[in-house]
Amino acid sequence: MQGLHNHFVIVDGRKFPYVPTINETIQICDVNTGVGGDQLLIIEPPTSFGAASGAYAFMRIINIDGQDAEACGNATRCFAWLMLEETGLDELLLETVVGPLRCWRRGDRQVSVEMGQISTHWKSIPLAREVDTLHVPVSNGPLTNGVALSIGNPHITFFVDDLDHINVADLAPPIQNDPLFPQKVNVGVAQIMGDGRLRLSVFERPGILTQACGSGACVAARAAQLLGLTDKKEINVEMLAGSVNVVLEENNNAVLTGPVEFCFSGRLTGLEGRAI
Predict the structure, then answer these.
(1) What is the pLDDT of residues 39-63, one digit of tens each?
(2) Catalytic site residues?
(3) Domain 2-114 has CATH 1.10.645.10
(4) Which of 29, 34, 119, 227 is most solvent-facing, going by the fewest CB within 10 Å?
């Protein structure tokens, strides 16, 4: 599936548990050796905690380097659409490592997800030491005064006057790998467009410039609020692959809405003698 050109390989691991090796994940996500994708998602049964909360399934997210990720808005929408189609429901709960997420249909292949609360506490992000998270002391060229936030995964968002004149792929890596971020960080660069709109580009862990980032859109909208750059509670975030809608609720919870697309299905073969 793909959500705003974020491509995901989704494996059902409920009947036959699937725990890929790091090498398998790398091969699957590499378009030269496998399906090709930005992340590998695995459908798992909910844990006892998730089942007690009413979660339908557990979503495991694995980055292209084989390391587990905490959150991804585009992945969650795609995953949720599959589960909504499977159940015929219009709304359900998904369990993730950051807790249960409520997901529902918003229209034709449009899915909304309650992404959870956005935090700026330095330990939640996490940072290596306490700093002013609204003015993080990490910079590179025009990327200064970044806002550090977490929506289950670590982000830093910088605001610039003209995104078209910023080479994000060149400027972001030193920030992403700065010692202040022990788990590295997703680097967002945003431009306020007015009228509840902003443009965004995100250099994601483990080191790729993606065409869209759902969690990055949520934190960018919140960062704009925190810096007084907007007073809107509903913000349209425009990225290279398209737009998502972010609603910031009173409790700092973010609701993300955007499109999903089914691409194809098949079987993974040649994985250390297994067929999935």
Answers:
(1) 999 999 999 999 999 999 999 999 9
(2) 72, 213
(3) no
(4) 227
pLDDT digits (tens, 9 = 90+) for 12-30: 999 999 999 999 999 999 9
What architecture (CATH level 2) is domain 117-259?
A: Roll (3.10)
Look up the pTM and report it.
Answer: 0.91
Domain boundaries, the chain: 2-114, 117-259
Which residue, among 56, 24, 16, 53, has the nearest Cα to 40 in the 3D structure? 24
